[in-house]
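Lecture notes, continued. The same structure-token format from the folding unit now serves as the input rather than the output. Read the line below as a description of shape only.
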């Protein structure tokens, strides 16, 4: 592949429940900017203007109003659309870069966080994900992609010239995995982090579908699962005029 490793989770904070998780040196460098942006764009708590109540009624009507066990069947994948050098290699990879790939398909490599890796390994063929621009001036969702190849060893862990090289990983028992993703379509409009956060805060108060969205409870993970309700609700935002 002509593109360097770029879809990283080096910025993820190691889960304290995972004693073998390592904290990469680039954690604070790559994710502090995004964390600061989230703080600076923190909206006031209040009622969601998203039509949440109407959306809720529609979904309850479809499901008979019964709550089902939480399962994750969709994903959110973070990638950096702006140039940033990591060990001399530009890790930039935007949605335009994906669209420029042969068959608009590429491998999602460079993930070096254990929880994010486990999420990669849980992905199933055909599942859809939001392509999220992170660590940039205005982070947010720009497109939808789908999983076209399930988890297999990430070759960059064995490449000494790659910024994500891991000298402790062995080919007979690779530590890190990747999947292949393919571009599906652009969202009808850019859905910014600040807008999603407004709904998240409102839903925390009124019990909406984004109340536990991992984008805000585990902000630093670059691979995040979404429930069907979370995915559907965020997708419904593309039909609304930005506030």
């Amino acid at each position: 592949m002509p593109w360097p490793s770029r879809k990283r989770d080096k910025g993820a904070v190691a889960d304290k429940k995972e004693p073998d998780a390592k904290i990469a040196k680039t954690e604070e460098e790559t994710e502090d900017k995004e964390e600061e942006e989230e703080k600076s764009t923190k909206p006031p708590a209040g009622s969601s203007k998203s039509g949440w109540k109407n959306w809720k009624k529609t979904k309850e009507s479809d499901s008979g109003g019964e709550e089902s066990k939480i399962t994750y069947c969709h994903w959110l994948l973070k990638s950096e659309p702006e140039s940033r050098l990591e060990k001399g290699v530009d890790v930039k990879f935007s949605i335009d870069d994906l669209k420029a790939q042969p068959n608009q398909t590429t491998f999602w490599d460079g993930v070096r966080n254990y929880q994010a890796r486990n999420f990669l390994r849980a992905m199933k063929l055909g599942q859809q994900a939001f392509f999220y621009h992170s660590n940039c001036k205005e982070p947010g969702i720009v497109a939808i992609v789908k999983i076209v190849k399930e988890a297999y060893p990430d070759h960059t862990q064995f490449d000494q010239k790659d910024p994500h090289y891991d000298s402790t990983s062995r080919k007979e028992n690779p530590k890190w995995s990747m999947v292949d993703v393919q571009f599906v379509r652009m969202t009808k409009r850019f859905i910014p982090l600040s807008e999603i956060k407004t709904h998240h805060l409102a839903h925390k108060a009124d019990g909406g579908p984004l109340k536990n969205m991992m984008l805000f409870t585990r902000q630093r993970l670059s691979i995040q699962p979404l429930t069907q309700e979370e995915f559907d609700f965020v997708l419904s935002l593309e039909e609304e005029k930005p506030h």
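Point for the exam: DSSP finds seven helices and eight strands in the chain.
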